[in-house]
Amino acid sequence: MVARVLVAVLLHLYTITGMMAAHFINARHIQDPNAANTTRKHYWGYPSRVLPCTKDTGTCEYLDAVYSMHETSMRYAFILWAVLLGIAATWLFIRGWRMTSHERQPSGPLESAWRHLALAKRRWLSPDVASKPLQRLFGHVSRLQLLILTILLAYCLLFSLIGITYRTWLTPLPASPLHNTRAGLGGFADRVGALAYALTPFAVLLGMRESVLSVVTGVPYQHFNFLHRWTGRVVFVQAVLHTVAWTMVEGRLYQPQPGVYREFIGQQYVVFGVVAMFVLTLMLVLSTRTAIRWFGYEVFRVGHWGLAVVYLGACWGHWEKLWCWMVASLVLVVLDQVVRWVRVAYLHCGGGKRSNFGFHCAQAHTTTLSSSADNDLVLRLDFTHTHRSPWQAGQHFHLTFPSLSLWQSHPFTPSSLPDPNSSRLQHHTYLLRVREGITARLAALDEGATVPVILSGPYGRGFPSYGAQNVLAVAGGTGVSFTLPVVLEALRQRVACGPVFAVEFVWVVKRGRDLLWVREELGELRERAEGWTGLGVRVFITRESEGRRVGPDEKTTGDMGEGESMVSELVGLLNGTSGCSVSFLGGRHPAIAEVVGDFVERAAMVGGNVEVVGSGPETMGSDVRSAVAELSVDTDVSCYWDSRGD
């Protein structure tokens, strides 16, 4: 509704001021359309040109250069989108070909070339960037993501400079000793502005939760956030260059001053440009971590969407001849919101049952699972909810707690699997690491409190991937919510399919009592391991030593005795089961490279490809990706890390 109102207002303003803007644009381009014996040559995205040119030689040569640079700018903008659409089409074709190749025994030069390409990608592009300065600037980002950003930056830099007329003309002013300085700076300003317009729909695509890119590529939407942020910054830099360059032209190179600049800044299309630049700057500032920490996530989330709509409308009003980029962006923004709310309504309006029609929140029960001297607190949410189409292992939901904040939602992965025997009612279990914000407010509720929940989703890929045979799941802390359902689903598939392959679950936790988060699930894995040699369960406890279940800086309390007894019993059962082990590291961390290498060797004995999945702290994800990249085997090893767990 807000988007429609804003678009309607901007369209109304544009209708009122269209004639005025056209008059000023024609005046700015020093052409007289009413001159005798002249014709108009139309240009897409630019004012028509009046021919023949009746001005002085310098002015006519300048106009030749301006229109030539504009044609080149449009060409480069559409080449950019031709490349992007070509990549998307190629990716979609390869996805379909790879899925069908799992149904047969692939062979031949094409399959061999693909294996070599996948091996090169795994070894050279999957690891995180190792340079400390780059990590401080970009965070924990893979070489592939950085390579894509580098290519985009190189394209924008290169094609912002190629095709610019690097020449200056001094043109006289009638009845005045002054002269205008006309140069290629205006063409450069238009070039970066045109590329900023062309990049805007791409930035919106990268930021969509209901992602079109995810449908095409199969990559979950959250993995586009890095490119979304940096594409937005590229657009901001281009907008700044566009603004500064035209300010120099109109405020310095054209004479007489300050009259020329005063007339320029008062024009309607320039006012729209100033508004767009201000809104874009505000979006950039409010999206920084400092601003989010100061004003809260709610302000960022609602403000970012609202400001984006205003920015797109202001850009439309600034240069309506390139309206196509803004309309495409607005369509994507509205589509993202509409699809999201339709999915929410579908989940909460009775699941399609007329007898129960109406919006119903799920009712979640909270349980405090652990706490310690360093404020390490984990909450468990349990509730049942009606689903017509349940989720897959590894997918996540965005949860909103309307009694605490209606404007804030966070992604959480259910640690439970949907019941295949139930057509509608499904049980959800979530493990939440308590931080600041909404999770801290949840923790402040009474023990066992009931809180209403609104779900949106599910989002992300399902795991194990299609055709995956050997699965290694590595979790750190509450990342077990992502990996444990994947392991259980892999076991379910192995039983259904018949062949014996290797499945291993590795969990790194701080303390032994953290095992109680998923005590029943660990018990189920232990029972499975007793009857199937292909399953391995390895738990690493980093802050405790054998025989010492409490960290050196912590004190036991009277209500921990029962919990410690259950931990000891669970540890004993796991250590007493073949294929299962619990290791106390006493302040150390496990060697992830050894864990990955051991599993790949074991998988090689039974044959088949290997899929490594995991969730946890970013540093652990970097270790896993590096370990997979350093493998010297030619086996098909894929790696997926979900960084939302900790």
From TrEMBL:
Q: Which GO terms describe its cellular component?
A: plasma membrane
Location in or out of the cell: Cell membrane
Signal sequence span is: 1-21
Q: Enzyme group, top EC level?
A: oxidoreductase
**Pfam families, from UniProt?**
FAD_binding_8, Ferric_reduct, NAD_binding_6
Could you tell me the EC number(s) of this protein? 1.16.1.9
This protein's UniProt keywords? Cell membrane, Electron transport, Ion transport, Membrane, Oxidoreductase, Signal, Transmembrane, Transmembrane helix, Transport
Instruction: Describe the location of the FAD-binding FR-type domain by residue ranges.
Output: 356-465
Against SUPFAM superfamilies, the record matches this protein to:
Ferredoxin reductase-like, C-terminal NADP-linked domain, Riboflavin synthase domain-like
- Primary location recorded for the protein, binned into one broad class: membrane
Q: Where are the transmembrane segments?
A: 76-94, 146-168, 188-209, 230-249, 269-287, 299-319
Q: Note the topology in the membrane.
A: Multi-pass membrane protein
Query: Which BP terms does GO give this entry?
Result: copper ion import; intracellular iron ion homeostasis; iron ion transport
Q: Which reaction does it catalyse?
A: 2 a Fe(II)-siderophore + NADP(+) + H(+) = 2 a Fe(III)-siderophore + NADPH
Domain of life (superkingdom): Eukaryota
Question: In which family does this protein belong, per the annotation?
Answer: Belongs to the ferric reductase (FRE) family.
This chain belongs to the protein called ferric-chelate reductase (NADPH)
Organism listed in the record: Friedmanniomyces endolithicus
